[in-house]
Amino acid sequence: MNVDPDATIVKPGDGEDPTALAPPSPSPSPSPVTSDTDALPSGTTFKGRLRYVLGAEYELLSGIGQGGFARVYKARDRRLDRIVAIKVIRPDLLGRKVFVESFRNEGIALAKLRHPGIVPIFDIRERGGLIYYVMPFVEGTTLDARMERRLPPYESRRILCELADALAAAHRAKMVHMDIKPGNVFLEGDLQKVLLMDFGLAKSLQASAEDASGGAVVGTPEYMSPEQARGLSDIDHRSDIYSLGALGYRMLVGRPPFRGMTSVETLNKHITEAPRPLREVNPSIPKEFADVIMRCLKKSPAERFATALEVGRALDAVTFFSGRVEEAGPERFSKTQRTLVTLLVGLTLILGLVIGMALR
Questions:
Q1: Residue 329 falls inside a structural domain
Q2: How many angstroms separate the CA atoms of 332 and 340, rounded?
Q3: Tens digit of pLDDT for each residue in 40-79?
Q4: Do 29 and 104 share a structural domain?
Q5: Claim to verify: residue 123 and residue 232 sit in the same structural domain
Q6: Does 179 participate in catalysis according to the annotation?
Q7: pLDDT digits (tens, 9 = 90+) for 267-300
Q8: 152 and 123 within one domain
Q9: Domain boundary residue among 136, 159, 194?
Q10: How far apart, in whole angstroms, are the C-alpha atoms of residue 19 and residue 289?
Q11: Is there a single domain that holds both residue 183 and residue 278?
Q12: Distance in angstroms (rounded) separating the CA atoms of residues 359 and 318
């Protein structure tokens, strides 16, 4: 489960370091998570501290991934004898309320969701000065890693369909993901089952205006909707639909619709520029497929699909003349082999005619 555990947080006018670009927060105050690790000797490493906190319940095995705000570890649940993933917020961020609340929000969001395309959580704990939660351990790869090799259009459609279905479930639970990107899409096992991960920036549509980010721009610039790029507080589920379109755009042509020299430039492009039509970049993309992606990328939320469910239905309706059969078709045979097949077919027809005449 080599996933990017966290999202980028961008604030126009600042640098590129994600910690420095965090939304403004009060000066560091005592950690909101109480500590009971006074018995640990001074100089204990973070991993040693986590082992102490996990106690006899979990055996820490190895690190899996690390982002700007959290670390993910592979562990064994001693009681149930199963492998799990443990995601823990970085200790230096425990005194910063904005990060702790974001981490808690992800756990709360996941606890509300029940869908085969969304990784659930088993438990969330605040103990020993740390806050962490336990999740299933899944094996596979991220979509980001998969896209290092070309994705055929039919596979891109499958992945987008499954993502749209998972997003529809999140939206029904009144949650907006806010960070749809290749690093947050996991392809599990040999069947490459699609899993939507990392709800750390997820926003509840039931939250009050006072709970909004106060103008901070949060997300990953290449996949953010125009309203998200502006830092608006009244963002709804249609922002995720735009991000899904930006992801689909990259899957089909190898790059996102907009990419500037800086994060701020990229955000401005989302707000002010129209994406280049997909079929101008890659004419082989079926028109119906390109139309779905380009509609998702409309600047106005009202012009996009109304729901992720509608996106999934539109993608289901896309047909391919080419696909697995075509890609495995003529190229499998050399010119000589095709000539031999043609001769054999001709000889079979002649022999059939001769036999037919003899039987008369």
A1: no
A2: 14
A3: 555 678 888 899 899 889 999 999 887 667 889 999 999 9
A4: yes
A5: no
A6: yes
A7: 999 999 999 999 999 999 999 999 999 999 999 9
A8: no
A9: 136
A10: 38
A11: yes
A12: 51
Summary count for the chain: helices (H), strands (E): 12, 12
CA 146, CA 180: separation in Å to the nearest integer?
Answer: 16
- The total number of structural domains in the chain stands at 3
Buried b (16+ CB within 10 A) or exposed e, 271-301: eeeebeebbebeeebbeebbbbbbbbbbbeb
Q: Give the alpha-carbon dihedral of 42, 44, 50, 56, to 10 degrees.
A: -80
Q: Which of 179, 190, 236, 291 is catalytic?
A: 179
Q: Which amino acid is at 37?
A: T
Domain of residue 93 covers 9-15+25-136
User: Is the sign of the CA dihedral 128, 129, 134, 139 positive or negative?
Assistant: negative
The model carries a pTM of 0.75
What is the pLDDT at residue 219? 82
Which pair of structure tokens corresponds to residue 351? 């022999």
Model confidence pLDDT, tens digit, residues 317-352 = 998 864 443 333 444 445 555 666 677 767 777 776
Query: Does residue 301 share a domain with residue 177?
Result: yes
End residue of a domain, out of 136, 168, 199? 136
Taking alpha carbons only, the member of 255, 252, 256, 263 closest to residue 242 is: 256
Start-to-end CA distance of the chain, whole Å, equals 71
Per-residue pLDDT of 186-214, as tens digits, reads 999 888 999 998 887 777 655 433 444 44
Same domain, yes or no: 160 and 301 = yes
